[in-house]
């Protein structure tokens, strides 16, 4: 029973933290650009406000449109509950990396179908672009999984993170270095950040993710925004725990869990700050230059696999 | 006389009855009776397979049935596995045909079509049971001929049917010839044509001869399986055949190509050498990537599904190839996992591809078109079909909680967990294998999102799509059945574990790939595990909970106009079509696809700065077909023209040919 | 320094060495290429230093410092000077597009790995195991030189080849004789110098140095 509570608690923690992480990226970015910017908790307020408003469906849109935000949210929650963010023990650390990749993709697919279901030009365009990027990110993700799993001989995330936490020096190998670079680029692409997509643009011809969710409003929009924030938090948390697995609890004692949650918060906010700082200095790539970036991350992931053989 | 022979007898007898019903019954009752009988025949086929897969030994020699050689049949777990697949697809196709063929006397409901389908399925059921070279070749050829007749069913209605049939006939016969040569050579080298004798004598064949035999048969089997570059018949024949026949071909018949490779390579020749399996894996990798890249840009619904068949066959062959390589490199436990992935994917693919081809048939029946650019909006008028097709697409895209995901997960586990110390070949091949699987998975998702999104959602793009009506109950029943099988395979794949273990054991890899435990899929030799049931329950429970919470706590949903930039109203012409949806990916794979685009700009009469109209045409030809097959066809035609000179119409010349041939044969016999 | 940490550091240095080579193929900006080359020089020097420490050899340490100075300071500085004189800052039209060349780099690394396996089998030490990295960088360097149009990109390709050779020499044998390594490197420095003079003269005479266009001089 306590394992279930731990998993639910972890999902709740990620759900609560996620808008804060997004708030941090926005605040840091605003400061670096010389703007005052909103408060860190602003995304939370937006979500609260939107949740109270009724959702609207465009004429002609069907059940795929209204189901997508819920599916996106449920996949995010499921990942948040089963990935070892806080503890590697029990259900909270039982996820398989390939399943996580699959669930992330399932969420993307739900939104892409919703974009098409609206029957608008923007929805179709955003959906088409999103699926192009998702199709090319998938190989990178799975190859990086390969590089990470050869070290411990399993794709079970709990085991991978626990192995890293017990022997942090073993994490610091060229294979994980390359895998980290590859996964970082894949994270940018999956969460629609610069240079792949601009999260703050509403210019019709350049947007990807925003075009796809253009028709959402009220509660639906709140769910989509919340789930997207959770996906960012999940991927940042994964990066943090795979490549800097310090402070992750290996049991379920209260003190260890509380410390681990605090460390996780710090790590996620740190990565979010880095991400925002990097975004300030980068420009969005043309859509047709994005495959080049993803080919680069793919090559790095393949090299990560090879170096895990060569430099073992 | 044991249960298996009774079941097989029932299956064949009902197939014969179905054939008779198709021939003699009046239009009013023809499809109903024949369909029900075909369904029963398929169900009995499943029983035969299930009995064989549980290890029931059965063999039959019918020396009088065929002059000289006789017919010899035997069942083992390997044949059982494929029999279950073929039987299940047949049963579903029988039910589907009732509504699909309707009460018309032409097309799929015609006398020939209804009578030949049972013969085709019976031939398919007999191929895995064949226990001698002649028997195998006989049923193989029977299967090819009957399927050819079925491909031609609608040749009066569509112009594209005839070229499709010619391609299919030529390629399937060429494949038959290579298999014929290979198996005859095998029989000659071992001195017997019974599979039992070959199995014992196979060790004495020289490696060169064994390798050549394997390659020759691989050519034939791969062309039947639709592996690239032997695939050009597949998108044509699958697209032009009636949909229940497409399902039978794609879900059952092409699997027999895989069966041939397994039977010959692992069973008869005893496992062979590592490079054989490298060749199989390379063929698989090529098929997987090329198939899915062509599928994602296809705008014809059934062509998309056909290329996806090439892709899935590629993944299966990749698993088979790696299983062979791993078994030959001292890692039989991991090899068994790869083989389990391949076998499970044959079943999974049969499940979801049956469902998807049935769905495509429903769409074609309701709208009269398969062109995705002209479809759309079906989710409002064909709700059940849309839901079922979406479920099939989920499985085909290898997303959790679909059944395709399970077999891809197994395949990836096998590729990830080979030890690189076992040799350079594996160390290089495994990362490439993972990259291929991952790329196909990613692009596959895009292809199926495109199929569902542009084919079924949003506004209808043509009047035909706007006036579509839901299919009759028999078709929906068949689709629901296929979807239920997919769901079982997705949620509790471990039910197949004992069967898989027996099949893999009969392939001379003595390892159990999946350890016990129904809910948690655990592998032997690898510590990764997943719980497919919990994943499915988790997704469904979380989604339902979120939806219910939102409905209870939040305000009611409202309808509004979509954002039209203030320049509305939006029309279907403003939607993304299937072509435009795939355009970014098509650009990415430009070097592979080499599309031919043509833009015509017509200027206004008054001023050349004002454009009156723009016409854009795009074609994505099959490059492999153009590069390899067109020159080949041209060369054959040239040869044929040249050969005309041998036949001048003079009687003496012909008699002289005969005399020469006779003398050559006699001299050859005398020298030997 | 414990043996484990030292071999791990060596691995990281090798990883960085390979990563920079891929980075050179990836980026188009010439200034970024020079920065990457500098980092690669540092990684090479680090490899040399770690190996010298492992062998406790003063001579090897001297070589390491010399190589570090040359690869991480002198050659990048000279390249920057060339670059300042040439305003064309980007590799605009590579003969093989960037995505394909990245995949080719991955393929070349696979090739290097399989080709070096018998070599590694001879002496399976931690450093010898890393030789495929050096071979891969040699191949990537040749590939870069063969597929890029700007003269400066080609020089960088040749420098990658040289770095790769040096890395292979260090990793496979534990260090080449000082005189040989210095001789080779000085040769290369001279080559860069000559090319620098040549390109700047060509530039003043004919404008941008696109090698395809230079062919017209020959015809």
Automatic annotation (TrEMBL), chain A:
Protein's cellular compartments: Membrane
Recorded topology in the membrane: Multi-pass membrane protein
Keyword Repeat: no
Top-level taxonomic group: Bacteria
Pfam families recorded: NADHdh
Chief place where the protein resides: membrane
Positions of transmembrane segments: 6-25, 61-85, 97-119, 131-149, 169-189, 229-248, 254-281, 293-311
Recorded GO CC terms: plasma membrane
InterPro entries assigned: ComplexI_Subunit1 (IPR052561), NADH_UbQ_OxRdtase_su1/FPO (IPR001694)
Keywords per UniProt: Membrane, Transmembrane, Transmembrane helix
Protein name: Formate hydrogenlyase HycD
Organism: Rhizocola hellebori
Automatic annotation (TrEMBL), chain B:
Chief localisation class: membrane
GO CC term, one of those recorded: plasma membrane
Keywords: Cell membrane, Membrane, Oxidoreductase, Transmembrane, Transmembrane helix
Location relative to the cell: Cell membrane; Membrane
NADH:quinone oxidoreductase/Mrp antiporter transmembrane domain ranges (all copies): 130-427
Signal peptide boundaries: none
Segments passing through the bilayer: 6-24, 36-58, 78-101, 113-131, 137-153, 165-188, 208-230, 242-262, 274-297, 304-327, 333-363, 384-406, 426-453, 474-495, 531-553, 654-671
One Pfam family in the UniProt entry: Proton_antipo_M
Cross-referenced InterPro entries: ComplexI-like_HydComp (IPR052175), NADH_UbQ_OxRdtase (IPR003918), ND/Mrp_TM (IPR001750)
Record carries keyword Oxidoreductase: yes
GO molecular function: NADH dehydrogenase (ubiquinone) activity; oxidoreductase activity
Membrane topology category: Multi-pass membrane protein
GO BP term, example: ATP synthesis coupled electron transport
Keyword Transmembrane in record: yes
Name of this protein: NADH:quinone oxidoreductase/Mrp antiporter transmembrane domain-containing protein
The organism of origin for this protein: Rhizocola hellebori
TrEMBL record, chain C:
Transmembrane segments: 6-26, 33-52, 58-79, 95-116, 122-144, 151-172
GO cellular component, one term: plasma membrane
Major localization listed first in the record, in broad terms: membrane
Membrane topology: Multi-pass membrane protein
Alphabetized InterPro entries for the sequence: HyfE-like
Keywords from the UniProt entry: Cell membrane, Membrane, Transmembrane, Transmembrane helix
Cellular localisation: Cell membrane
PANTHER family per the UniProt record, alphabetical: HYDROGENASE-4 COMPONENT E (PTHR38601)
Stated name of the protein: Hydrogenase-4 component E
Species whose genome carries this gene: Rhizocola hellebori
């Amino acid at each position: 029973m306590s394992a279930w509570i731990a998993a639910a608690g972890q999902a709740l923690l990620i759900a609560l933290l996620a808008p804060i992480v997004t708030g941090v990226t926005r605040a840091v970015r605003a400061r670096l650009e010389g703007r005052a910017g909103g408060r860190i908790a602003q995304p939370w307020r937006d979500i609260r406000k939107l949740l109270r408003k009724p959702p609207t469906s465009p004429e002609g849109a069907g059940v795929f449109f209204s189901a997508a935000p819920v599916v996106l949210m449920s996949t995010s929650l499921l990942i948040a509950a089963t990935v070892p963010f806080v503890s590697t023990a029990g259900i909270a650390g039982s996820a398989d990396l390939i399943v996580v990749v699959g669930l992330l993709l399932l969420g993307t697919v739900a939104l892409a179908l919703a974009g098409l279901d609206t029957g608008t030009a923007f929805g179709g365009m955003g959906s088409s672009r999103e699926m192009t990027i998702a199709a090319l990110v998938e190989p990178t993700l799975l190859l990086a999984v390969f590089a990470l799993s050869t070290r411990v001989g399993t794709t079970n995330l709990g085991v991978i993170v626990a192995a890293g936490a017990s022997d942090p020096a073993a994490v610091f190998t060229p294979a994980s270095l390359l895998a980290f670079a590859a996964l970082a680029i894949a994270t940018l692409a999956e969460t629609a950040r610069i240079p792949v997509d601009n999260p703050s643009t509403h210019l019709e011809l350049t947007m990807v993710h925003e075009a796809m969710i253009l028709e959402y409003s009220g509660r639906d929009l709140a769910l989509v925004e919340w789930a997207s924030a959770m996906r960012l938090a999940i991927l940042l948390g994964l990066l943090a725990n795979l490549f800097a697995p310090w402070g992750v609890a290996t049991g379920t004692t209260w003190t260890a869990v509380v410390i681990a949650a605090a460390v996780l918060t710090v790590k996620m906010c740190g990565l979010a700050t880095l991400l925002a700082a990097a975004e300030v200095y980068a420009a969005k790539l043309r859509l047709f230059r994005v495959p080049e970036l993803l080919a680069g991350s793919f090559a790095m992931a393949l090299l990560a696999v090879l170096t895990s053989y060569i430099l073992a | 006389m044991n249960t298996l022979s009774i079941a097989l007898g029932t299956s064949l007898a009902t197939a014969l009855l179905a054939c008779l019903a198709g021939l003699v019954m009046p239009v009013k009752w023809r499809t109903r009776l024949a369909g029900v009988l075909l369904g029963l025949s398929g169900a009995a086929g499943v029983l035969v397979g299930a009995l064989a897969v549980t290890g029931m030994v059965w063999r039959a020699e019918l020396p009088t049935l065929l002059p000289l050689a006789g017919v010899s049949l035997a069942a083992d777990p390997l044949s059982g596995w494929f029999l279950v697949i073929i039987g299940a697809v047949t049963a579903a196709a029988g039910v589907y045909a009732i509504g699909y063929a309707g009460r018309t006397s032409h097309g799929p409901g015609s006398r020939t079509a209804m009578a030949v389908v049972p013969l085709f399925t019976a031939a398919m059921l007999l191929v895995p049971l064949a226990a001698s070279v002649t028997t195998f070749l006989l049923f193989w050829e029977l299967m090819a001929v009957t399927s050819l007749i079925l491909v031609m069913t609608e040749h009066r209605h569509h112009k594209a049917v005839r070229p499709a049939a010619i391609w299919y006939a030529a390629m399937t016969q060429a494949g038959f010839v290579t298999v014929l040569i290979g198996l005859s050579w095998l029989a000659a080298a071992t001195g017997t044509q019974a599979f039992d004798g070959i199995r014992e004598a196979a060790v004495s064949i020289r490696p060169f001869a064994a390798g050549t035999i394997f390659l020759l048969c691989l050519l034939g089997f791969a062309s039947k399986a639709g592996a690239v570059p032997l695939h050009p018949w597949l998108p044509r024949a699958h697209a032009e055949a009636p949909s229940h026949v497409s399902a039978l071909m794609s879900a059952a018949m092409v699997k027999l190509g895989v069966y041939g490779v397994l039977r010959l390579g692992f069973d008869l020749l005893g496992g062979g050498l590592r490079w054989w399996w490298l060749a199989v894996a390379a063929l698989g990798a090529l098929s997987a990537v090329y198939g899915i890249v062509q599928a994602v840009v296809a705008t014809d619904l059934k062509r998309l599904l056909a290329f996806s068949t090439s892709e899935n066959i590629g993944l299966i062959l990749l698993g088979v190839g790696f299983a062979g390589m791993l078994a030959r490199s001292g890692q039989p436990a991991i090899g068994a996992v790869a083989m389990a992935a391949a076998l499970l994917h044959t079943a999974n693919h049969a499940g979801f591809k049956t469902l998807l081809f049935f769905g495509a048939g429903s769409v074609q029946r309701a709208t009269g078109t398969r062109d995705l650019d002209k479809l759309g909006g079906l989710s409002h008028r064909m709700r059940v079909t849309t839901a079922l097709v979406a479920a099939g697409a989920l499985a085909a895209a290898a997303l959790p909680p679909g059944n395709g995901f399970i077999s891809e997960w197994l395949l990836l586990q096998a590729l990830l967990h080979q030890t690189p110390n076992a040799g350079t070949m594996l160390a290089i091949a495994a990362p490439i294998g993972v990259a291929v699987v991952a790329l196909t998975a990613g692009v596959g998702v895009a292809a199926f999102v495109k199929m569902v999104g542009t084919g079924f959602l949003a506004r209808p793009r043509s009047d035909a799509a706007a006036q579509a009506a839901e299919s009759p109950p028999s078709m929906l029943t068949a689709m629901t059945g296929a979807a239920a099988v997919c769901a079982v395979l997705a949620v509790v794949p471990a039910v197949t574990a004992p069967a898989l273990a027996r099949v893999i054991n009969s392939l001379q890899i003595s390892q159990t790939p999946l350890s016990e435990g129904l809910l948690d899929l655990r592998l032997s030799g690898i510590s990764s595990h997943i719980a497919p049931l919990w994943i499915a329950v988790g997704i469904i429970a979380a989604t339902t909970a979120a939806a219910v919470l939102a409905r209870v706590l939040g305000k009611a949903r409202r309808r509004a106009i979509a954002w039209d930039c203030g320049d509305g109203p939006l029309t279907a012409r403003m939607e993304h079509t299937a072509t435009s949806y795939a355009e970014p990916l098509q650009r990415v794979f430009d070097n592979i696809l080499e599309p031919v685009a043509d833009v015509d700009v017509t200027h206004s009469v008054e001023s050349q700065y004002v454009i009156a109209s723009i016409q854009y045409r795009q074609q994505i030809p099959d490059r492999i077909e153009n590069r390899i097959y067109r020159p080949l066809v041209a060369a054959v035609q040239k040869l044929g023209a040249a050969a005309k000179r041998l036949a001048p119409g003079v009687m003496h010349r012909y008699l002289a040919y005969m005399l020469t041939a006779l003398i050559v044969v006699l001299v050859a016999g005398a020298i030997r | 320094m414990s043996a484990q940490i030292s071999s791990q550091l060596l691995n990281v240095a090798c990883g960085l060495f390979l990563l920079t080579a891929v980075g050179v193929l990836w980026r188009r900006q010439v200034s970024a290429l020079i920065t990457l080359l500098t980092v690669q020089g540092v990684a090479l020097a680090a490899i040399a230093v770690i190996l010298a420490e492992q062998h406790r050899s003063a001579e090897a340490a001297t070589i390491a410092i010399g190589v570090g100075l040359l690869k991480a300071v002198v050659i990048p500085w000279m390249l920057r000077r060339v670059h300042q004189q040439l305003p064309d800052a980007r590799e605009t039209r590579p003969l093989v597009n960037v995505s394909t060349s990245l995949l080719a780099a991955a393929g070349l690394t696979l090739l290097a790995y399989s080709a070096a396996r018998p070599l590694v089998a001879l002496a399976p030490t931690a450093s010898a195991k890393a030789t495929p990295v050096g071979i891969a960088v040699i191949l990537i360097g040749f590939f870069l030189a063969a597929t890029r149009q700007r003269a400066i990109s080609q020089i960088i390709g040749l420098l990658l080849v040289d770095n790769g050779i040096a890395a292979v020499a260090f990793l496979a044998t534990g260090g080449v004789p000082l005189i040989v390594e210095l001789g080779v490197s000085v040769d290369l420095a001279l080559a860069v110098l000559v090319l620098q003079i040549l390109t700047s003269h060509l530039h003043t005479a004919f404008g941008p140095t696109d090698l395809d266009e230079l062919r017209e001089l020959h015809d």
